[in-house]
């Protein structure tokens, strides 16, 4: 636990500084590197070969270069929509069949590319907006605060299991506490730092609720991968936290959802 806290205290300020201080091209490149490590860890959980990993990473890299050369918000909205649709389908599948059957490695890697690509495009699209770096930090804070509050509320008040077959430690009370915590943190930051009022604040809070809820699906989805692979963590690169994928699973799901809300509706409020 102490190791986990120390790692978080070191990484959080660095991540926030980089998101705020660098231009979108640099942010996109750095975030791509982080997601690339997550894709590598996903490959190990899926049991896929190195050749497939490098092939898929090369495809993502080509798309990355093309998008960074001429990045347009309209395709980004489509990608965010597809990412959101993917996670809504996963919510339905996990609710219906729980842990389900193990996917074949190639199917799992195709899903990895969809998930990671949608997250990257959505994050870059938000970062390019007016006040984009600050918007991005607060958007990420939705997942960070939801995860933190869910952990402590679940420990203290958790009684009803959310998905015992997939993740025995998760409770309904914890999820509700996480959503409430995300609302308080991201709403306060948007109110005081971005001066959001009225419809803009209501839209932000609505996006926060949906994103916080869907972030749980990202966590459960990765738990399914790890259980099928017989692994406790996706890696050991982060002391006390496991792998990169263990830290960004909620972010992978929440980012396209939040971006879709904001990119589509914010111009009208």
Distance between the termini: 43 Å
Please report the number of helical segments: 9
Helix fraction bin: over 70%
General shape: globular
- Strand order, main sheet: write it out: 1-2
Taken in chain order, the helices and strands follow as: HHHHHHEEHHH
Give the biggest beta sheet.
Answer: 2 strands, antiparallel
Structural class: mainly alpha
Unreliable stretches: none
Rg calculated over all Cα atoms: 18 Å
What is this entry, summarized?
This protein is mainly alpha-helical and 269 residues long.
Strand-helix topology:
Layout: H1 2-21, H2 24-46, H3 50-69, H4 73-97, H5 105-127, H6 132-157, E1 161-163, E2 167-171, H7 172-193, H8 198-229, H9 244-265
Protein model, in words:
The model has no long low-confidence stretch (mean pLDDT 88). The protein has helices spanning 2-21, 24-46, 50-69, 73-97, 105-127, 132-157, 172-193, 198-229, 244-265; strands at residues 161-163, 167-171. A hairpin with a 3-residue loop joins β1 (161-163) and β2 (167-171). It has nine helices and two strands; from the N terminus they run ααααααββααα. α2 runs antiparallel to α5 and α4 (73-97) crosses α9 (244-265). The chain is mainly α and 269 residues long. Strands 1-2 form a two-stranded antiparallel sheet.
